[in-house]
Amino acid sequence: MAEAMLVGVKELGFDQAKLIECDKVMAQDFIDADAIIIGTPVKMGGIDHKLKAMIDTVMASLWIEDEIVGKVAGCFATGGGFGKAGAGVEVTMISLANVLLEMGLVYVPLPKNTVGFDKGGLQWGAYALSANENMCPKEISVDSLNVAKTHAQNIVRVASCVSQYRPFMNNRIA
Amino acid sequence: MAEAMLVGVKELGFDQAKLIECDKVMAQDFIDADAIIIGTPVKMGGIDHKLKAMIDTVMASLWIEDEIVGKVAGCFATGGGFGKAGAGVEVTMISLANVLLEMGLVYVPLPKNTVGFDKGGLQWGAYALSANENMCPKEISVDSLNVAKTHAQNIVRVASCVSQYRPFMNNRIA
Amino acid sequence: MAEAMLVGVKELGFDQAKLIECDKVMAQDFIDADAIIIGTPVKMGGIDHKLKAMIDTVMASLWIEDEIVGKVAGCFATGGGFGKAGAGVEVTMISLANVLLEMGLVYVPLPKNTVGFDKGGLQWGAYALSANENMCPKEISVDSLNVAKTHAQNIVRVASCVSQYRPFMNNRIA
Amino acid sequence: MAEAMLVGVKELGFDQAKLIECDKVMAQDFIDADAIIIGTPVKMGGIDHKLKAMIDTVMASLWIEDEIVGKVAGCFATGGGFGKAGAGVEVTMISLANVLLEMGLVYVPLPKNTVGFDKGGLQWGAYALSANENMCPKEISVDSLNVAKTHAQNIVRVASCVSQYRPFMNNRIA
């Protein structure tokens, strides 16, 4: 998913885009970015604890200092198994959104008129089934990858206009 | 709350801003707007049924046709009473956000460095206590009204840049 | 769904079980019951406004007076369409659970080892797809109906033991 | 909070009750218990990553095997700081509830007629402010501790009746 997103963003000419694993990302990576996309496998109906560890440390320090307020963000998730729905995918994405909004980030949805939405989208972001109903792992479908790519492009487009305006700057506590 | 928001938006020079009650708003009002802000009292831990009736009819018809995808939105709520936190305010705001994201709207958070955030803000938007812990109604505080005003201004500022770009247009299903 | 649940409960010998539509249910119906099951179609990612109107009036009056604290409850939903997952089904069920917990009701989950869970269950309760990915309505599957029936039986079994103990009674504010 | 809960449970005569930290708890501890209470500080609007690590490993293995289906559970959280509400406490508790329901556990709410509810309760469980609006840490109030104690007693009372019935046993997949 993340690789499809990277391809999409680079296609738009944003060559400085980077894919960074959650145990390697640093505060400066967030500060340098105009757009931030985070994703997780659905683990026990929520954010994977390895990503949560990064949120509770790296992102928490940025949050305390309001260092990335006004940037643009979106999210994605992979899930699967029992309950067809990829049970827990909504709670997981709401939890991701909750973190992104806490950081003061403008949040980009995945509109249902996106090509392939019915194969890999929720209003909260891109998602893909990585396992069948019986929990057998399966490859992520091409449709889902295409949706992820489009979602990343949407996020970057919003970021490229919002980043010029810094819309919340006037309201900051001095 | 809504009136404070209207004042804030007009101060920025957006004279065409309108405050419309949920039983009077029409689909065309949404289509004409660049920014959409919806609010509700917390009722039984969720969206008031009168607002939900509007969502299930007016907004549902816009949703089916993808007519307001790519506009900018935010939300607010008032609550109070048992449980200090204005119990249910988060579920209510998540429900509002869920609707706004379903419509394909870019969602503007309320950053915690907003002046007065500690008196009337959640990451999901502006909120105000309209009752004490013991459920006695009380006036909404000036701090909460100021936060609401700033939140509306943030939303409109984001909208004024995003509306020029229509960032999702290339991705629409023809 | 509701009819399958009623059949299931009557099979267990609870002949006084009733199926009541949301615009006809009265406060006394809740007071008379040991177990309460509510369900809704997913409407714009949330509770249908007609059910919400009942919650905001009939259930709100019971809530204020703490009249049904300690009874047992569960929920179900039907959804479908865009996004395979029946997008919004989790937010909808969380909203229903939120209401039931506010009423002080013991909440019965749908365990994943329920026969047919993968066809019509979420941890929050029974759900069924009432439309395809492309929003064409479809009949609710037999599997989903069976899951709903089992879920209702579980709720009633929990209620039949909890109702004898009234476990919260000692803690009530006099 | 957890210590107040332990005192409450022991007062009811349940001497085998144990308080176990999340990095020390083992699968067998869950299997041996009739009632399970989990709690977390609100960290970045969600479950602390150290607790999530336990959920993703110890509880996940129990989940896969459906080993604790039909037991009884509840939760608590501590939070504080910006936004008065202990922003994120609802999302955190919904996330905890989501995990408990996934495990197939009967969920005990905190009824609003609990003495002290207005000082330390949400419908989802007991919570306490561990910091002021300006994020200065503060001691948890006696009221909040009393609510936690009562909540634990409610959970144990429900468990002591449900555990005799094993209400979901007939429905298990053989």
Description:
Four copies of one chain form a homotetramer. Chain A has 174 residues and is α/β, with parallel strands linked by helices. Helices cover 43% and strands 18% of the residues of chain A. The radius of gyration of chain A is 16 Å and the shape is globular. In chain A, 60% of the residues are buried. Chains in contact: A-B, A-C, A-D, B-C, B-D, C-D. The A-B interface holds A 63, 66, 69-70, 94, 97-98, 100-102, 104-115, 123-124, 150, 153-154, 157-158, 160-162, 164-165, 167-168, 171-173 and B 63, 66, 69-70, 94, 97-98, 100-102, 104-109, 111-115, 123-124, 150, 153-154, 157-158, 160-162, 164-165, 167-168, 171-173.
Topology:
Four copies of one chain form a homotetramer.
Chain A lengths: L1 H10 L15 H6 L2 E9 L2 E2 L1 H16 L7 E9 L8 H14 L3 E2 L9 H4 E2 L2 E7 L10 H24 L9
Helix pairs in contact in A: 1-6
Distance between the termini of chain A: 40 Å
Q: Summarize the biggest pleated sheet of chain A.
A: 6 strands, mixed
Oligomer: homotetramer
Shape of chain A: globular
Separate helix tally of chain A: 6
Task: List unreliable stretches of 5+ residues of chain A.
Answer: none
- The amount of beta strand of chain A, in percent, is 15-25%
- Given the helix and strand composition of chain A, which structural class is it? alpha/beta
What is the alpha-carbon Rg of chain A in Å?
16 Å
Indicate the mean pLDDT of chain A: 88
- Please write the string of helix (H) and strand (E) elements of chain A: HHEEHEHEHEEH
Biggest interface? C-D, 39 and 39 residues
Helix content of chain A: 40-55%
